[in-house]
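Dear support,

I submitted the protein below through the web form. The confirmation email said the job was done, but the results page showed an empty box. After a refresh the structure appeared. I'm attaching both so you can tell me whether what I see now is the final result or a partial one.
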Amino acid sequence: MKAKARIGIIGGTGVYDPELFKLKQTVKLSTPYGAPSDEIQIGEIEGVSVAFLQRHGKEHIFPPHMVNYRANLWALKQCGVERVVSPCAVGSLQEEFKPGQIAIVDQFIDFTKKRDYTFFDGAQTVHISTADPICTELRELFIKEARRLKIPHHKDGTYVCIEGPRFSTRAESRMFRAFADVIGMTLCPEIQLARELEMCYVSLAMITDYDVWAEHPVDVETILRTMAENMDKIKALVQAALPKIPEPRKRCECPKTLEAAGA
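What the results page shows now:
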């Protein structure tokens, strides 16, 4: 493997744009945790080296609860990735979080049940801090660019991550509304695994629907249609922000996660 990239994008097929992403090399990797969801495509966006990984595979064959999150993050780390940008689709739990907007979330609540949550499941036990799980430097940069581009967004928010692949019951959705702003199925354990590898991580959560607390139950057709109609916002934000991400990581604590945990 020759090509390296310091920035990784974990996304779906809608994020990948051959006109935006200039492919240089496709890398097939194995990891101690099995195979990642797909090959890693290494190329450039606006002159910036980027490693792109399809979270669910090119054919969307891995549902959220079956994604090999550990292999995905480990493989990106092998490619030299230090910063991860993660576009995803979410439902809204609050009236003011409207479909078509982007939530640049700063907190999460984990309601998943049976995923692999850590790399430290052997001889060494490490307790990382997730008090402030999102990289502060990346969040500030993407918020600034969203504001400059006049992209409708929320500069913070709490993401509740559920196991899936089913959607919530109405009772669950009403409960989640008391504690969170958006709901999705992929943030956890992706975000804490990135922290264990001392990678910076930011989530760009595209709001596609109101969850089932609202009048109309959520359905896949609505999600896909809204995502397609608003994907250009994510692409524009990524295209604008990536060249402005500084190479040295001096304005966040992400590179010191394990040191702070005493590892």
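Response: this is the final, complete result; the empty box was a page-load delay. Helices lie at 69-78, 136-148, 170-177, 187-196, 220-241, 257-260.
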